[in-house]
Amino acid sequence: MIRVLVVDDEALIRTGFQHILNSADDIEVVAAVPGGQAVSAVRQSRPDVVLLDIRMPDVDGLTVLADLRRLPDPPVVAMLTTFDMDEYVASALRSGAAGFLLKDTDPKQLPYLVRTLADGGAVLSSAVTRTVVDGYLDNSHQEAAVRAVARLTERERAVLTLIAEGLSNADIGRRMHLSTGTVKDHVSTVLGKLEVGSRVQAALLAERAGLLRQPGHREGG
To answer: Which residues carry this modification: 4-aspartylphosphate (predicted)?
Structure first.
């Protein structure tokens, strides 16, 4: 059972996410709270995944993210955002957010996205990805991204491509016919060679390097 905490200042959003996610057999929303209660709720309920509003009136989502990242065994945190919040999304990326979801994400996709996060995958809503790439990795970094990707072996580039598509370790393993343990080793090596701290940063670097636009690449397969 995947334990989820929803943090948002709007009760309607919290209730909506709670209802959608609790309808999945393998997901339980253990708490749904406003931002000021987030850290204490995490300590009490110990969720696997936190869906965190990036901007709230009572406490800034970036502050909450930083507080959660300092916990001894921090949960995976994905930011809830709207399309026009690119500067906050970029800051959250630098602070270690594991994903970004638009609040109007298709409800049918939410359980899958939570499973991906819990399994170590990077979740990037397509509308957010382009904005973050432009805001976090500007044009001056494109050549550096290309050089970084060039350090990878062919198999590592394949793993990076699948990370950039948002696949979890288990999904990558099935796609490449590798064990989950082997995939974890490859992911660790890729992050080290790219000198990034998270799968999301690796995914955006791959996008900036043009890895997903190379001939022969087909998204999702």
So the answer is: 53
**What pLDDT sits at residue 221?**
39
Count the helices and strands in the chain (H runs, E runs): 11, 6
Which stretches within 70-218 are classed as H helix?
86-94, 110-118, 126-136, 142-150, 154-164, 169-176, 180-194, 199-208
φ and ψ at 166, to 5 degrees?
90, 15
Which residue carries 């500067």 as its tokens? 87
pLDDT tens-digit map of 50-63:
999 988 888 889 99
Q: Which of left, alpha, beta for 2 (phi over 0: left; psi -120 to 50: alpha)?
A: beta
- CB-CB contact of 191 with 199 (8 Å): yes
Say what the pTM is. 0.72
Question: Rounded to whole angstroms, how far apart are CA atoms 183 and 189?
Answer: 10
